[in-house]
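A student in our group prepared the protein record below, which I am reviewing. What it holds is a sequence and that sequence's fold in token form. My question to you is simply how this chain folds and whether the tokens agree. Do not assume that whoever made the record got everything right. I have pasted the whole thing underneath without changing anything:
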Amino acid sequence: MSKTVLVTGASSGIGAAVARRLYARGFTVFGTTRSANPSSPSEFTMFSLDVTSDESVRDCVDRVISRTGHIDVLVNNAGYALNGAIEETTLAEAKEQFETNFFGAVRMVNAVLPSMRQARAGRIINIGSLVGLIAVPYTAFYCATKFALEAYSEALWYELKPFGVAVSLIEPGFIRTSISHAARTAAQSLPAYDQARNRVIAAIKDGVDKGCSPELVAKAILHAATSRTTRLRYRVGPDAVWLPRIRKAVPWSFFAAGLRRQFAIDAKT
């Protein structure tokens, strides 16, 4: 019997790559998008989903289960980036970031867990980030959502292991997607931050443009979805592998100086 996977944020980038790869491996794939009238590719069905809405989440999960009777794998990929200095970002903007990137994943997990727990089987795969391990300035609240996902996923792993439900967290570094170019910007702009902020955001976009293919992330997710023995964490890309190791191995002042150079925070204009 074909296994069913639900991938949030599957209209482009990592989500689309994951949906296509899992479809190619025989999964029955359902993807989601924020679009009110999603167009479905030939490979899999797309549903409209707002992960910030309890009703929308319940409706989406119920529609999938009504068609297949079960959800075997949930891939929580929906999210967006928010750029701006901490002082420039309103509390409302920060909360909205958490509602999508963190609580959106929580809503999805809560919706699929009853059936997975009853079946004593299932896999939950959350898309984290290297910036859930190492914070980058001028993206503080995006980083904070990914740091939160780290703790949440680790605790969830412990809680669900007795029920046969596996939890994995994917931690990509720079990946070539549209996320940085489609990033939202804090509404308030303070001139004191302009030069450093603009340099950092430009460096992030350059890193994304030169990053690994989304297919590399899809490969890791395929492993997490199909392997007999899964891991809690999968780091994807050389930067995701080596930067956390370097941070642990060297004094903080040395690491921080390197990061400031990488993102041109102190560059003279």
Remarks:
- The longest helix spans residues 140-160.
- Residues 4-262 form a domain with the Rossmann fold fold (CATH 3.40.50.720).
- The radius of gyration is 19 Å.
- Residues 64 and 248 are 43 Å apart (CA to CA).
